[in-house]
Design goal:
With about 190 residues, the protein is an alpha+beta fold. Helices cover about 45% and strands about 15% of the residues.
Length: about 190
């Protein structure tokens, strides 16, 4: 697995394109993004009853491969230009729990990410992308994935309902196409 710290030039490019890196905290994301949706297993919002029956650990395990496949396809489409923000604001007990859920190699890799002060990384191989996608899909650690060539941010979230923010129609349409090819939906 390989991630490299984003260079100042890459950070400046991301900042000029996306303006803010904490997309998940934007109160009015429509001021920054023309297309907003939710990447999801379902093409509609579930009722409370459906959610209590369908969602949970087994749901995440069952559908995680579709998210991995979609992110992998986006990664290859992007000529491997995908960036993530590693938020270091975890409580110690949450960090320990996360590490306990990982194998030795993954735990070592994750510790290394947290040992650096800077938190914007370029994903250099599909293995690292799969690892971070699985962390989000299994609700262990949520990541903001930036796809600059598609002008798109996808944010890991609970219940495999990942917010997706696109600045351009072209980027949104391409993301939608790939996501649907992998048996998922973008709810608007």
């Amino acid at each position: 697995m390989k991630l490299t710290l984003a260079t100042n030039e890459e950070i400046n490019m991301l900042h000029s394109k996306f303006k803010k890196f904490n997309t998940h905290h934007l109160e009015e994301p429509s001021k920054f993004y023309r297309h907003i949706g939710i990447m999801d297993v379902f093409n509609r919002v579930l009722t409370e009853e459906e959610a209590s029956e369908l969602l949970g650990r087994s749901h995440n395990v069952k559908y995680c491969p579709k998210f991995v496949s979609a992110f992998t396809d986006l990664f290859h489409l992007q000529e491997n230009q995908v960036y993530v923000i590693i938020n270091k604001g975890m409580r110690k007990e949450d960090f320990k729990y996360l590490l306990s859920c990982l194998n030795r190699e993954e735990a070592k890799f994750f510790r290394k990410l947290f040992s650096n002060n800077k938190g914007i990384y370029k994903i250099d191989d599909v293995e690292a992308l799969i690892f971070l996608t699985k962390l989000s899909a299994n609700e262990l650690y949520f990541t903001n994935f930036f796809f600059p060539l598609l002008d798109t941010v996808i944010i890991g979230n609970w219940d495999l309902s990942f917010p997706i923010y696109c600045k351009t129609t072209l980027g949104f349409d391409k993301c939608n196409e790939i996501i649907e090819e992998n048996g998922l939906y973008i709810r608007k």
